[in-house]
Amino acid sequence: MANELRPCPCDIGDRFDYGGRGQEVQVEHIKAYVCKPPASTDKAVIVIHDIFGWQLPNTRYMADMLAANGYIAICPDFFVGQEAWKLSNDWASFDDWLKTRNAGKIDKEVDVILKYLSEQCGAKKIGVIGFCWGGAAVQHLMLKSPHLKTGVSLYGVIKFFEDRFSLLNPTFFIFAEKDEIIPLEQVTLLEQKLKQNCKVDYEVKIYPGQTHGFVHRKREDISPQDKPYIEEGRKDIINWLNKYL
């Protein structure tokens, strides 16, 4: 009953029935999903999963989309073997679960993945995108990792890093108008602080009528009113990466 009493926006959306076109690899102490484009490239994107983990078909679908657009895409297990969140879990235990999975403590894993992309995949220009928990991780990385040329944060939980705004490289923030865990006031404040403090290119975009997870957790084929915004969000990701990578 706990889930019914405390619904979470992360529940909203669909779990895709999707197998993925890439392969799983072991990179030092991390498992990762990798998908490469048909033609060789020196551009790569690290994909940071949400609370449902690196094996979520939806996230692999997004990695494959990046590969189809010419990027080496890698989605590592940033929980490093710890269990991803399950819909059957009791939301009352979520805060305790989250304490051992800090979106601001992934630097060691990112360094390992950067080395792999450079040495094993020939990547010279590397960006990062992330969803929800991963969106917050993108903001963290854009504040401290000069090796990542650009970032796209999708409905990243602002409160994790709400007091820091000096981004090192261009960053695109995607938000949903009707996101229950990221109020629009927080988004407005983020825009104000970025305007005051940020010296690199950035964009904050709110998609009308959308809910948390809309870019990768909604099926555009059964939600005709959402389809244009889901497609727009995905095109915006590619356009941003194409511009800065």
TrEMBL record:
Keywords: Cytoplasm
GO molecular function, one term: hydrolase activity
UniProt KW Cytoplasm keyword: yes
Gene3D superfamilies tied to this protein: alpha/beta hydrolase
Domain Dienelactone hydrolase span(s) in chain numbering: 30-245
Localization per record: Cytoplasm, Cytosol
One Gene Ontology term, aspect cellular component: cytosol
Superkingdom of source: Eukaryota
Similarity comment: Belongs to the dienelactone hydrolase family.
Protein name: Carboxymethylenebutenolidase homolog
